[in-house]
Specification:
single chain; about 350 residues; alpha+beta; BirA Bifunctional Protein, domain 2; 2 domains; 10 strands; rod-shaped; binds 3,4-dihydroxyphenylalanine
Length: about 350
């Protein structure tokens, strides 16, 4: 076979234009194999070198090598162009505009109990009360004895207490049956004047339409040198009006008994039940909403405060019932079912925080 220079040039030109025309990496790879692979067209021409005379080889050797290198370089260059274009296409297709608004609104809701706790904290913050906390697992002293409920006192039976197993000191801790132990902890750790509310979880072995074994209370405590029952009434009236967002609320203080207050009262608010709807504030019916009174001297003494110098008032109120009344939820048990449909209906948007100025519940 006789090879001419123009054969080489023609093949080189054909391969070149094929490389330029390859519009994807697979097509380019096919061209590479068909030219430079073992059985490729250029490789085939190179095989002729073996049968050539020395003079011919001097001409065709460099010529074929040059053609081979030129084609290899063109393939490499085309490959990087195609790879760049492929990357560009992928980046465009996966492009995310981080400045766009998120497409789905937040799904979570604030539970009505949390909402009511926030509302209560906001109302009392406006009257200069701090929020205090205590442990859910209490000792007998803070939950009972210091609150003037000594062992064998009948009030202990009324509390349906959950007791923990006896510990190494022979002591049985309890799940706090009310938030009143936070009063004790506050008076032990803080000098009067004291103004606190203590919202939190409480526990009693009780369960029906209106009772759950875990429920929520808020405790209030004011201690100074001259707090009176009048201040107590004014404070509670301001609270009830702000909480139910009404200008007038009929209130009734009924004499009652709690070991930790003397005198003690239970507070009812006026309401009406018409057309299956409950209206708070006016009407001929009454709803009991909390217990209160002047802190018993014995309680002050248990906390190391001199009853001749200090006095004050306290109150305790069930939060779940307030939430049911304000937001019209009929069954307390649904509060603790963790049913997303219920929460979606009764819950609150996370960023709608209650404020006195901006509206408590709107
Ligand atoms: N601790 C009482 C209860 O759980 C509620 C209560 C009544 C708290 C009167 C008080 C109070 O601070 O003065 O039933």
């Amino acid at each position: 076979m006789s090879l001419s220079e123009s054969d080489v040039k023609t093949l080189e030109a054909e391969l070149s234009s094929a490389i330029d025309g390859a519009d994807n990496l697979d097509a380019l790879e096919d061209i590479r194999v068909s030219a430079l692979g073992k059985k490729g067209s250029l490789s085939g021409l190179m095989k002729n070198l073996g049968g050539m005379s020395a003079e011919e080889r001097q001409v065709f050797g460099p010529l074929l090598n040059l053609a081979k290198n030129t084609i290899a370089e063109q393939i490499t260059a085309r490959k990087s162009t195609l790879e760049g274009a492929a990357l560009e296409t992928r980046l465009m297709s996966e492009r995310v505009d981080v400045t766009l608004p998120v497409s789905t609104p937040p799904q979570g809701r604030i539970h009505p109990v949390s909402q009511v706790m926030d509302e209560i904290a906001e109302i009392f913050a406006d009257m200069n009360f701090n929020v205090a906390e205590g442990p859910d697992i209490e000792d007998d002293f803070h939950n009972f004895t210091a609150l003037n409920i000594p062992p064998e006192h009948p009030a202990r039976q009324m509390h349906d207490t959950f007791y923990l197993p006896e510990n190494e000191n022979g002591e049985r801790k309890v799940l706090r049956t009310h938030t009143s132990p936070v009063q004790i902890r506050t008076m032990q750790n803080q000098k009067p004047p004291i103004r606190i509310i203590a919202p939190g979880r409480t526990y009693r072995s009780d369960s029906d339409m209106t009772h759950t074994p875990m429920f929520h209370q808020v405790e209030g405590l004011v201690i100074d040198e001259n707090a009176t029952m009048g201040h107590l009434k004014g404070t509670l009236e301001a609270f009830v009006k702000a909480f139910f967002e009404v200008d007038n609320v009929k209130m009734r203080f009924r004499p009652s008994y709690f070991p930790f207050t003397e005198p003690s009262a239970e507070v009812d608010i006026g309401c009406s039940f018409a057309d299956g709807e409950i209206r708070i504030g006016e009407g001929d019916d009454w709803l009991e909403i909390l217990g209160c009174g002047m802190v018993n001297d014995k309680v002050l003494e248990h906390c190391g405060l001199d009853p001749k110098q200090y006095q004050g008032f306290a109150f305790g109120c069930g939060i779940d019932r307030l939430a049911m009344l304000k937001y019209g939820a009929p069954d307390l048990r649904a509060f603790f079912d963790s049913d997303m449909r219920w929460l979606k209906h009764y819950g609150f948007l996370p960023l709608d925080m209650p404020t006195i100025a901006g509206g408590l519940s709107s």
